[in-house]
Amino acid sequence: MGAKIQRTDRRSDALSKKRIVGVAIEILDDAGESALTFRALAGRMATGSGAIYWHVSDKDELLAAAAEEVVTPFMIKIGGGRPREAIRLIALGLFDAIDAHPWVGTQLSRGPGQPAMLRIFEGIGGRLLALGVPERALFDSWSALVNYIVGVAVQNAANARSHARGTDRTALLATVATQWSQLDPCEYPFLRQVAAQLREHDDREQFLAGIDLILAGIGTVG
């Protein structure tokens, strides 16, 4: 009887929601959202779909839980500390998370009420409160940061996917930079001037530079 109970406990643990979400993340990372079905999940876990439905009601809930599982660790790790640096760490954490798990960007764009987005929203907004941003500028400041952070991180992941399909990033940037440098200097003086920087820029560093510019602007609000 004791041995039977022990096997039951192991079976229950194998089918915990955390384990199901972990396997779902593996499928999403390997083959994308279209590959994530309850049948595929059950097959990989060597169980029945009914056992999975006991823990997760539908694919929407599963995707939201998977995104939360990716976002939560780096949000918790940031902890306290200086608000500006914490905002930069949140931004970098999300940038790297979406770069590693491109499906997360698609999921986060589906709605503001899911747990992962609430964590990001509060993480950024709470630091703006700590910075003493006036209430009249608080929502606009928060919105500018959130839209920039999520939008650029998602776009970076989309660009990375296109490079993975055979477009070499370095070659692409070199081609565009060359085209810009050859434009009419009277009509396109700015593009000609920044052509070399386009060729050599680092996406992650540029992303952080944008965060710093936004924070610098927020710092001028009195």
Give a short overview:
By secondary structure, the chain is an all-alpha fold. The chain folds into 2 domains: 1-57, Orthogonal Bundle (Arc Repressor Mutant, subunit A), CATH 1.10.10; 70-219, Tetracycline Repressor, domain 2.
Task: Explain the overall architecture.
Helices cover 78% and strands 0% of the residues. Mean pLDDT is 89; it is low at 1-13. The protein has helices at 2-14, 17-31, 38-45, 49-53, 59-78, 83-100, 103-108, 115-130, 135-164, 169-181, 189-200, 203-219. It is mainly alpha-helical and 222 residues long. The chain has twelve helices and no strands. It has two domains: 1-57, Orthogonal Bundle (Arc Repressor Mutant, subunit A); 70-219, Orthogonal Bundle (Tetracycline Repressor, domain 2), CATH 1.10.357.10. Helix 6 packs antiparallel against helix 12, helix 8 (115-130) crosses helix 9 and helix 9 (135-164) runs antiparallel to helix 12.
- Topology, number of strands: 0
Task: Note poorly predicted spans.
Answer: 1-13
Secondary-structure-derived class: mainly alpha
- The CATH architecture of the largest domain can be named as Orthogonal Bundle
CATH superfamily of the largest domain: Tetracycline Repressor, domain 2
Instruction: Sketch the topology as an H/E string, one letter per element.
Output: HHHHHHHHHHHH
Q: What is the CA–CA distance across the termini? A: 71 Å
- Tally of separate domains: 2
Which fold name corresponds to the CATH topology of the largest domain?
Answer: Tetracycline Repressor, domain 2
Structure annotation, total helices: 12
Radius of gyration (CA) equals 22 Å
